[in-house]
Design goal:
This protein is of the alpha+beta class. The protein has six helices and eight strands. The protein is globular and about 45 Å long. About 35% of the residues are buried.
Length: about 220
């Protein structure tokens, strides 16, 4: 059999969001699991990179979830490694490109430390949000904070901004039919459902929610 032509299959970016919303993620609530997993990864990466002397050492890892009822916004913040402008372009704008494998290859650490893939999982945000902003400041020295914004179309904006703390904030402008996710009780239940045994503290409005101590790791006496 003669091969007459070879090439690459093209993925049209304008079709990616319907695929994410209808096929890849049918259960909207898992967006929170994906974003929290990304934050856990970022915190693990900062710890690992700081040990190698590649970035500033941070305080104990912490993920904060805050609700703004007036603006109908949900924000997931972490004090992880953060991203530079070039890293945002690489890991966010290239849909489904994961930083986890590249990072592990560089630092040769236990793969259990890195549990998520920032590429496609991040885009689960658009199942519940009409607009997503990502504000990030890298733990690397002499870097500027950046803000990435997208309304669910292939178009995005990227600009330098001021940010006092290292880490990443993901701000979701919730759709009108997804306002259940500004209810504290709903978010608290989702944290318990998906994040109870994650190794990083998850706070909702300043209250620590997840256990971080699985039953199977406790002594029989307890």
């Amino acid at each position: 059999m003669t091969v007459t032509e070879e090439g690459l299959i093209q993925i049209h970016t304008e079709n990616i969001f319907p695929i994410i919303k209808k096929a890849v993620y049918s259960d909207h609530e898992i967006f929170l699991r994906e974003l929290v997993s990304n934050s856990v990864d970022a915190i693990s990466k900062r710890r690992m990179a700081s040990i190698a002397g590649d970035c500033q050492e941070g305080e104990e890892g912490l993920i904060k979830i805050t609700i703004n009822r007036e603006k109908k916004q949900l924000t997931i913040s972490d004090n992880g490694i953060g991203m530079t402008s070039d890293e945002v372009k690489k890991y966010i704008n290239q849909v489904a490109f994961s930083s986890a494998e590249e990072f592990l290859e560089r630092y040769k650490q236990d793969t259990e430390e890195i549990i998520g893939h920032f590429g496609l999982g991040f885009y689960s945000s658009f199942m519940v949000a009409s607009n997503v902003q990502l504000i990030s400041k890298s733990a690397k020295s002499n870097t500027e904070a950046v803000k990435w914004s997208c309304d669910g179309s292939p178009n995005f904006s990227l600009e330098e901004v001021e940010k006092d703390t290292i880490g990443t904030d993901v701000i979701l402008q919730l759709m009108e039919d997804e306002l259940e996710y500004i209810e504290p009780s709903r978010i608290k239940n989702l944290i318990k459902k998906y994040c109870d045994f994650m190794p990083v503290e998850v706070q909702l409005e300043g209250e620590s929610i997840n256990k971080r101590n699985p039953e199977w790791r406790r002594s029989p006496k307890e």
